C-alpha cells in the first residue's frame, strides 16, 4: 500500500509539479476558449447550410459534416500539423490544434443544431411568419431559441468532449495539461503528476456532467 501511495499519490511530487501542470491547464483553457465558441458558430452555420433550399450548398455542407465527423480527430490533427507543411503551410502547434479541433467540432455541433432545428414544429414557423416576421427573423427569434433549448444537453455533452479532446494536443508537443503532467512524470519517475492532472479534469468536468443529467431529467419531464 505504501508503494502504491508513493507512486500515485505522492503529495510532495504533486506540489512540486503543480506550477508546471498549472501552466498546462492555462493552455488547455486557452484551446477551449478558441475552439468552443468558434465551433458553436461554425456548427450553427453548418446546420443552416444543411437545411438550405440551395441544393449545392446543402450537399456541400452535408459532405463537410459527414467527412469531419468520420475522420478521427487525432488523424486530422497530425495531418494539419505534419501534412500541410508539404503544401508550404507550416502552422504553430496551437494553430494546428485550434484548426483541427474547430473542423471536427463544427461538424458535431452542426449535426446537433440541425437536429434541434428539426425538432421545432413547422407550426411555430408558420405562426411566426403570419405575424410578419421574415425567414431570417423567424429563425433567429423563434426557431433557434427553441432548438437550442431542446438540444442543450447534447451541446453541453459535446463541449465536455472538446475539453477532453484537448489532451490530444500533446501529440504535437503543445504544452497543455496532459503534456505538462507527462513531462513532470518523466522527471520525477512517478505517476503522481498524471493523477493530479486527472483530478483537475474531474473537478472541471464533473459539474458539467451533472448539469447535463439535470437538463436531461428536466426535458424528459
Automatic annotation (TrEMBL):
It is a multi-pass membrane protein. It comes from Roseovarius nubinhibens (strain ATCC BAA-591 / DSM 15170 / ISM). Coiled coil: none annotated. Residues 25-213 form the ABC transmembrane type-1 domain. Its main location: membrane. The chain crosses the membrane at residues 24-47, 59-81, 187-209. GO terms for molecular function: transmembrane transporter activity. This is ABC polar amino acid transporter, inner membrane subunit.
Amino acid at each position: 500500500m505504501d508503494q502504491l501511495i508513493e507512486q500515485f499519490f505522492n503529495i510532495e511530487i504533486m506540489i512540486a509539479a503543480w506550477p508546471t501542470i498549472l501552466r498546462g491547464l492555462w493552455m488547455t483553457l486557452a484551446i477551449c476558449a478558441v475552439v468552443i465558441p468558434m465551433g458553436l458558430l461554425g456548427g450553427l452555420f453548418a446546420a443552416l447550410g444543411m437545411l438550405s433550399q440551395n441544393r449545392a450548398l446543402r450537399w456541400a455542407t452535408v459532405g463537410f459534416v459527414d467527412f469531419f465527423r468520420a475522420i478521427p480527430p487525432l488523424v486530422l490533427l497530425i495531418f494539419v500539423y505534419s501534412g500541410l507543411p508539404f503544401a508550404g503551410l507550416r502552422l504553430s502547434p496551437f494553430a494546428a490544434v485550434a484548426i483541427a479541433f474547430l473542423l471536427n467540432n463544427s461538424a458535431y455541433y452542426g449535426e446537433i443544431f440541425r437536429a434541434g432545428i428539426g425538432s421545432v414544429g413547422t407550426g411555430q414557423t408558420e405562426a411566426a411568419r403570419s405575424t410578419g416576421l421574415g425567414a431570417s427573423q423567424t429563425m433567429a427569434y423563434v426557431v433557434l431559441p427553441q432548438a437550442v433549448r431542446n438540444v442543450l444537453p447534447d451541446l453541453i455533452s459535446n463541449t465536455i468532449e472538446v475539453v477532453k479532446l484537448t489532451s490530444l494536443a500533446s501529440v504535437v508537443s503543445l504544452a497543455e495539461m496532459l503534456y505538462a503532467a507527462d513531462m513532470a512524470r518523466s522527471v520525477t519517475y512517478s505517476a503522481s503528476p498524471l493523477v493530479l492532472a486527472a483530478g483537475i479534469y474531474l473537478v472541471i468536468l464533473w459539474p458539467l456532467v451533472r448539469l447535463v443529467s439535470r437538463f436531461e431529467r428536466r426535458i424528459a419531464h
